[in-house]
Design a protein that fits this description.
- The structure holds 2 protein chains of 2 kinds.
- Chain A is built from no helices and 11 strands.
- By secondary structure, chain A is mainly beta.
- By secondary structure, chain B is mainly beta.
- Chain B is globular, with a radius of gyration of 14 Å.
- In chain B, about 40% of the residues are buried.
- The chains are: A mainly beta, B mainly beta.
- At the A-B interface, strand 5 and strand 10 of A face strand 5, strand 6, strand 10 and strand 11 of B.
């Protein structure tokens, strides 16, 4: 099992460019998440998908869109990148967003720099 | 709202030293508590968890006890190794509508020197 995979690992964009971060999981999990990690701020939830066909906003959704393509895949799109979106992005999955004891499994991250 | 406060890092210890990383939380209801570890260049992975008061989570020599009276979940290890060098995140999970929201602390970097 590969677990949670993310592509690309690194990306440099210019302000105003767009890009899509890809995430896939092979654990048959129902729920998937996108976080960003910034120094001194821990992880903040951007969007999540509790189940296939649903998506909801997290704490910091502005400037992002998501697509739950199927049960395995959950993509994050930046339509017009801004320097404030320079961050490390993590995708995660879990069996259920509604489980209080549920563990989240994380991908290796995408390091994005916006110039 | 919910919050998790961790001790500031970095923490530098010699091999075989005793480790404590403090974590306190604020939450409504009865959250579950987690410690995640992030090794350099990797994503977070679960280290241990506790789901109710007085529970002790343990894994790989690390332990943490869910203390509701002090709203704490401090991480301890009796003898650290160089391979324990990583960033450690305390987190809690509580109900927010139909979604069990996860709140992470800011992380504590641990460096263990030989």
């Amino acid at each position: 099992n590969a677990g949670v995979t993310q592509t690309p690992k690194f990306q440099v964009l210019k302000t105003g460019q767009s890009m899509t971060l890809q995430c896939a999981q092979d654990m048959n999990h129902n729920s998937m998440y996108w976080y960003r990690q910034d120094p001194g701020m821990g992880l903040r939830l951007i969007y999540y998908s509790a189940s296939e066909g649903t998506t909801d906003k997290g704490e910091v959704p502005n400037g992002y869109n998501v697509s739950r393509l199927n049960k395995r895949e959950f993509s994050l799109r930046l339509e017009s990148a801004a320097p404030s979106q320079t961050s490390v992005y993590f995708c995660a999955s879990s069996e259920s967003a509604g489980g209080l004891t549920d563990t989240q499994y994380f991908g290796p991250g995408t390091r994005l720099t916006v110039l | 709202g919910n919050s998790v406060t961790q001790m500031e890092g970095p923490v530098t210890l010699s091999e075989e030293a005793f480790l404590t990383i403090n974590c306190t939380y604020t939450a409504t209801g009865y959250p579950s508590l987690f410690w995640y570890v992030q090794y350099p260049g990797e994503g977070l992975q679960l280290l241990l968890k506790a789901t109710k008061a007085d529970d002790k989570g343990s894994n790989k020599g690390f332990e943490a006890t869910y203390r509701k009276e002090t709203t704490s979940f401090h991480l301890e290890k009796g003898s650290v190794q160089v391979s324990d060098s990583a960033v450690y995140f305390c987190a809690l999970k509580s109900r927010s509508g139909g979604y069990q929201k996860v709140t992470f602390g800011t992380g504590t970097k641990l460096q263990v020197i030989p």
